[in-house]
Amino acid sequence: MLWKLAVVLGYLILMGIVGFLTLKKNHTPTDFFLGSRNIGPWMSAFAYGTTYFSAVIFIGYAGKIGWQFGLSSLWIVLGNAIVGSLLAWKVLGPRTREMTARLSTLTLPEFLEARFGSKKLKLLAALIIFIFLVPYSASVFMGLSYLFEQTLGVPYELSLIFMTVITGFYLVLGGYLAISITDFIQGIVMLAGVAMMLYFGISNEKVGGLLTGIRRLAEIDPKLAGPIGPPGWLPMAGLVFLTSVGPWGMPQMVQKFYAIRSEADIKRAATISTLFSFIIALGAYLLGSFCRLYLAEVPAAGGVLNYDAIMPQVLSQALPEGLLILILLLVLSASMSTLASLVLVASSTVVIDLIGKERLGKDKTVGFLRFFCGLFVLLSLALAMRRNTLILTLMTLSWGTVAGSFLAPYLYGLYWPRTTKAGAAAGILSGFAVSVGLSLYFRLDAALMPLLGSIAMIVPLFVVPVVSWLTKPLPEEHLVRAYGQGIYPASLSGSKEIGG
């Protein structure tokens, strides 16, 4: 136990050293929040991938979805790699990097303000991001702390406090540059951990290899080994859509496109990120698919099915004692990278979007960013301390609400000049209303939450163009400023309406 704790402590000290070494490179808000827009393809790709996959995937989702759907959960792997990574980089990356640099915007709310000429849009977006990323961040804390408790015997509350101090330290000091460097290190650890997890998890006698494991699953329920699991195709489609298209509208994911160095780097990052996402998702969901072979029933917590406890117990049975520390570092890496990105994005909404960097000035803005990073970590800690089994459901609600609010306005804002301020506002409000309204109507039914989040992303894709065609277009000079001279006229396909 002591040597395990020593390894974890050494790893965390390394993360802290990175934060300390990057301290002097953060002089401006752009330095702190985007790493001076000078992050290379490998660091950008690993930052995207490690932010994508957190402890919630390894501890909560892999166990719960694997238990319910069996091998059909592998559809999520394909969706995450092809849609969530490859297409996201190809479709969003180049235009986002180009437009945000031209408009001098640092955050997604700032981009919405500059693109649509509306400060109210920025304020609305900032409030949604800050409020709904708190439970997301808390869910990351909880997933990691469960694993600490299961594998190291460290009390849950102590694990939470420990994580708060370490993550807050390197983030507050180093900003996005520190996140990028630590994400690269953490990504390497995650790849090594997944390789070991798959090898020992599938070759364990309880599974007996891939083909034997599939046969044993079919003996429990033929649907567990089929293309569509017992819950049916609609819940699976909701999960695939939510976890694969959702990142397109999540500000902590979009941030990676802002910060990358060049368009040429985007092409390389797309390939690296896709391979990374496929390997990590495959490791989590494939092993999760076989969790019924390790456990006779889902462990209960207070009379409620505790899906968060499945994967820690599977891993403790599947892996040799000495390798459990590598899996702990894997989940620790996934958690810290996601948590740091969430905290940085959420704190920026308060400082840059709500208070305003112009009002504070360059020096005070960086100081305020550091302060609110620490405050946001503490808010997430307070929520995670409640140890509420509802937290995974709240995380799904957060993902669906944030992605539903921003996906359509952001996507149309990048590619369709005819999108109006009213159309963007209608998109944000409709996505928010559908996600929150339906979730409350169905009383946060965990089985329905992924489907409701998917609906919240789809509805605004129709609302934005309809409202935009019915409302007055933005002035031509504003659109030229957003899209650039020479790009703007071609993107209108000959339309004469703008400026009329």
Describe the protein's architecture and organization.
It is a single chain. The protein has 500 residues and is mainly α. It is built from 21 helices and two strands. The protein has a two-stranded antiparallel ribbon with strand order 1-2. Strand 1 (300-301) and strand 2 form a beta hairpin. Helix 3 packs antiparallel against helix 11, helix 4 (55-69) packs across helix 12 and helix 15 crosses helix 16 (362-384). The longest helix is centred in the middle third of the chain and has 48 residues, at 156-203. Mean pLDDT is 82; it is low at 490-500.
How many DSSP H or I helices? 21
Order of SSEs: HHHHHHHHHHHHHEEHHHHHHHH
Largest sheet: 2 strands, antiparallel
Note the gap between the termini: 72 Å
Q: What is the global morphology?
A: globular
- Mean pLDDT, rounded to whole units? 82
Largest sheet: spatial strand order: 1-2
Topology, element by element:
Elements: H1 2-21, H2 29-34, H3 41-52, H4 55-69, H5 74-103, H6 108-116, H7 119-152, H8 156-203, H9 210-220, H10 233-245, H11 251-259, H12 263-289, H13 291-294, E1 300-301, E2 304-305, H14 310-318, H15 324-360, H16 362-384, H17 391-415, H18 421-441, H19 449-470, H20 476-483, H21 488-491
